Amino acid sequence: MPKMTAARPSHKGWWFDQINNRIVAVYNGTEIFDFDGNDFAIAVATALTGGLQVVSGTLNVDGIADFALDVKFNSTITAGADGVGADGEQLTSGGAAAECDWAAAACLREFKKLLGQRTDEAEVLAQLAATPVYDFKYKTREESAERVISTGDHETVYTGIMADDAPWATHYKGRILNPVNTFGHTVLAIKALLARVEQLESRLAAV
User: Fold this and answer.
1) What's the CA dihedral at 65, 67, 72, 75 to 10 degrees?
2) How many domains does the chain have?
């Protein structure tokens, strides 16, 4: 391995940084990632597995890591300052250059800032009854000029509402179905229906 104090602009591959005592992976003179004593104790690359095995310590990758085969995690996945997720949480992306975080539609009261109890069951029932319901399939990437947000299943026929007709049933700037609101509105509508049934039963009993 050549010993150099700096990578040449045209260099592609590995070089040894004598000043910082580290091994650096370089592409066109730009550092992709490095190995040093603080990162891990022993790293073994084997031709049998075709991969890199970190025996102990931490592997830091400063750049893009492209994996051609499966990636298996035998320990904990953390999301930076957001720490470790719990059962039922999903690792979500905040978009380009944003750190991933853990998210879930939590149900415990302790996680919420209550703003008041809803008592407009009749209005919500009318709102639900006026919302159109469609059969649809999600578009593929090739069928849309914009980035497609979907379940990833483009063959299943789904039955549901459109955000244009029911903004109350969405979140994330009106682009994602809000299961919390959807269920909450459904419960309110059921309460309104129950009140109507009880009124009818009371009238019939009085006849």
Assistant:
1) -10
2) 2
pLDDT digits (tens, 9 = 90+) for 156-184: 999 999 999 999 999 999 999 999 999 99
Q: Is the dihedral of CA 96, 98, 104, 105 positive or negative?
A: negative
Pair of tokens at residue 165: 């007709």
Same domain for 17 and 72, yes or no, is yes
Q: Do residues 30 and 51 share a domain?
A: yes
118 within 8 A of 124, measured Cβ to Cβ: yes
Residue after which a domain boundary falls, among 103, 127, 145: 103
Do the Cβ atoms of 120 and 185 come closer than 8 Å?
A: no
> Distance between CA 159 and CA 51 in Å, rounded?
45
Query: Which of the two residues, 183 and 78, has the higher pLDDT score?
Result: 183
Q: Are residues 93 and 138 in the same domain?
A: no
Residue 170: give the domain boundaries: 109-206
Regarding whether 202 and 186 lie in a shared domain, the answer is yes
Distance (Å) of CA 54 to CA 23, 31, 35, 87, 128: 15, 20, 11, 27, 55
Task: Give the Cα separation of 139 and 136 in Å (integer).
Answer: 9
